[in-house]
C-alpha cells in the first residue's frame, strides 16, 4: 500500500482549535496547500500558520473554500453537517477527521480509548503503565497533544495511547487500533448528535477496522458498552468490578486479577490506587487490562498505579476550608458522570450543577441527591432545567455568577460538608472549556482560604 500523499493538494482544515492547528501544521510540512477556515475573526496562532504558508479564512466558512478543495480535514469541534462541509461532501470532496489524517502517517501501534466518561484518566494511566513497563509511548488525542502533533516522533516501536471522542470517531475511514477500549456508554452530546443511537454508532466505529489480531477491551458491568462492542473482528477482553467473570480482569481478595481458564494471576493491589471516587477503579482496571495484553509486568503496573494521583479537574481534592472540603470534577460534563461523582460521597454534599445542557435526564440525580446532599447550587444556562428536574427532591439555589455559586455552596456546606463541582453540563456558556471552569473554581476556593 502506497503512503498517503498530500503534496501539492488543496486541503481545507475546518476549525482552528488545537486539533485543527496541529493538522494544518502537519499538512503544510507534508507539502499540501493548506487553508484553515474558522468562524472566529482572529486566532492566536495566525502568524505561526502564515509563516508555514497556510492561508487563513476567518469570520466564517465560505462555500468555495470547501468545494474547491481536494480534501477536507475536520477539527472535532466543527460539525460535519456544517453547510459548506456538507455541500462539498455531496459534490464528492473527501472529508476526514484530524484523527484519521494523523493515523495514516503513524508507524507505531494505536491504543484507542473511548467511552462516555473516564477517558482522560484511563488514557493517562495507560500511558504511564506502558512507559514504566519499557514501551516507547505517546499520549494524546482528545487530551494533551493532538495525534497530528505526534506523527513526526512515531516509529515502528511507538505505542500511541489516544483518547478518542465521538466527534473524532465519526470522521474516520481507516483508523485502526491494535487495542480499542470501551469504558462505558450513556447519553451525551445530544446537542451535536441527532440521537442517542447516532452517538453510540459514532463510538462503536472505534472497532470497525480491527482484525482478528487486535483486541477490544470492554467493561462487562456496562450494558451499553457491551452492546456497542458486539460488532468487529477483534478478540474481546472483558473487565468488571461487579459482574462475575470466568475469564478477564476482575477483583478478588482486594486485588485486580487476570483470570484465565488455567489460572488467576494477581496484577495490582487495590490499596495501590490513590484516586478519589470508587468509580475511578473502573478506569484503573481498564488501563491494567491494556497493560496485561501488552505484556506489562504486574510490578511495573503496580508502580505506575501507585504513583498516579489522578488528573486535574477529575475528582480533584482542591482544599479544606473551615471544615468544608472542595472537590473539582469539572470534567463531569454529562449526567452520568455527575451521578458517579455524587455517589462517591455519603453525606453533607452541596453540588454545583449547570452550564450548557447537552441532553440526558437530570431526574436520575434526584434520589442520590436526596440521600446525600444538603442543597444544590445551579449555574449557567441550565439553571431552569436543573431547578425543574430536581424540584421537590432537594433545595435548589440559583447563582448568577460562578463566584456567587462557590460562596453560596460554601455557606450551605458548613460546618463539615463537601462542595462538589459536578456540572453535568458543558462549560461554554460561561467558560472557555471545562479546564477553564475547573481552574476558576480552584481560584475562587483559594480566595476563600
Folded structure, characterized:
- This protein is α/β, with parallel strands linked by helices and 449 residues long.
- The chain has three domains: 84 residues, Rossmann fold (3-Layer(aba) Sandwich); 208 residues, UDP-N-acetylmuramoyl-L-alanine:D-glutamate ligase (3-Layer(aba) Sandwich); 133 residues, Alpha-Beta Complex (Protein-Tyrosine Phosphatase, Chain A).
- Helix content is 32%, strand content 22%.
- It contains 16 helices and 20 strands.
- Helix 15 crosses helix 16.
- The longest helix is centred in the middle third of the chain and has 15 residues.
- The model has no long low-confidence stretch (mean pLDDT 96).
Task: Label this structure with key terms.
Rossmann fold; 3 domains; six-stranded parallel beta sheet; 16 helices; 22% strand
CATH topology of the largest domain: UDP-N-acetylmuramoyl-L-alanine:D-glutamate ligase
Oligomerization state: single chain
Shape: globular
N-C termini distance: 61 Å
Flag low-confidence runs: none
Which percent band covers the strand fraction? 15-25%
**Strand runs, count:** 20
CATH class of the largest domain equals Alpha Beta
Domains, number: 3
**Secondary-structure arrangement, i.e. CATH architecture of the largest domain:** 3-Layer(aba) Sandwich
